[in-house]
């Protein structure tokens, strides 16, 4: 299978890196950035200087561009994409919008996230697809090479964007805050960062490996009148939980807005 990457920035590169270990996929790439194309070549992709040439070469296309770049990209392909199955990771662009943009193609919408860069991504694939069973299996394998895969309803995709698509940024902000607090209390920066990051990593693994509700896991760490109880009081007093929920909500709303082209 020849998979053509239209755009090979951070997310495209992360998926390409995962695929570089597979022997049943040949990758090609187009990007307006020479630097991005050079990186794609180091990952085993065939570089194309024109979008239309890549589209003509590929058996299947993977859209990895920003929403505002999509219309221009379609014009650059000059019809060479007609009839080719299309996977899109373009934020906010719904499956119905993709069908309007690619009327002669089968389409699949996917929402990945940046931990794919270290093989730990979370990839949501829309069930509202006209891909064949073989194409769905191939697409699942593509994204499984860079992390976990879940099939979700199309109507859930904006919520997925709010939770996992943009979610790494929320976690980075938490790690940043914990690190800076550690430095303020006298820890060296590198040690504080390691303590914070490993704590987040280990806590996440406990959630994934345990069917217990996260609130119960939190309670297990919290002794009456202890240090953790005092810290949690401050977090609740300052509205941490509500702030995170509102952040996700705002992200979901923005994703919906992006889809209204």
Describe this structure in words.
- Helix content is 53%, strand content 14%.
- It is of the alpha/beta class and 261 residues long.
- It folds into two domains: 2-160, NAD(P)-binding Rossmann-like Domain (Rossmann fold); 165-258, ProC C-terminal domain-like (ProC C-terminal domain-like fold), CATH 1.10.3730.
- An eight-stranded mixed sheet has the order 3-2-1-4-5-6-7-8, sandwiched between helices.
- Strand 7, helix 6 (133-144) and strand 8 form a beta-alpha-beta unit.
- Percent in helix: 40-55%
Mean pLDDT across all residues, rounded?
Answer: 94
Report the CATH topology name of the largest domain. Answer: Rossmann fold
Low-confidence spans = none
Largest sheet: 8 strands, mixed
CATH superfamily (homologous) name of the largest domain = NAD(P)-binding Rossmann-like Domain
Radius of gyration, CA atoms, in whole angstroms = 21 Å
